[in-house]
Amino acid sequence: MTHHAAVQDDQAERNIDIVLTAMRELFAEKDLTAIDRYWAEPYIQHSPQMPNGLDTLRNAVPHLDGFSWEPQRIAAQGDLVFTHSIVHGWAPNPVAIVDIYRLDNGRIVEHWDVVQDIVTPENSANGNAMV
User: Fold this and answer.
1) How far is 115 from 131, CA to CA, in rounded Å?
2) In terms of CB atoms within 10 Å, which end of the chain has fewer, N or C?
3) Long-range pairs for 16-24 at CB < 8 Å and ≥24 separation?
């Protein structure tokens, strides 16, 4: 492995740790001060139901009842972290969500997501689990 690749791998690993810690502290522990530690403005949001800016997170988190974020797969490349998760409490039924986070200087500054209702393997055309 070249030095450049090793540095990229180290940064990717640090970014994964930041995202996992940030999500745990904010959403599982409902610690709103996590926003100040792990996110930064300008926060660009690509999720169609959420406006830009960190006030959206500050206002949404206290109202998420029964919320759980269960990442099943995590990958990172450059300044991006990708998670594929089972999420409860975001929609009426459990959903599968792919989140993409962009980090800058160790802070989450941009977010994309794709949300799907979970279909059981028995009800899927291929018999495979979605997540």
Assistant:
1) 12
2) N
3) 16/74, 16/76, 16/81, 18/81, 18/103, 18/106, 18/107, 18/108, 19/74, 19/81, 19/83, 19/101, 19/103, 19/108, 20/71, 20/74, 22/108, 23/69, 23/71
In this structure, what token pair is assigned to residue 24?
Answer: 């745990």
Neighbours of 117 (CB within 10 A): 11
Bridge partner residues of 45 (DSSP):
111
Q: How many residues does the chain have?
A: 131
- Averages of pLDDT over each 10 residues, the chain, 131 residues: 63 96 94 97 94 95 90 95 95 94 97 95 94 91
Q: How far apart are CA 125 and CA 93, in angstroms?
A: 20
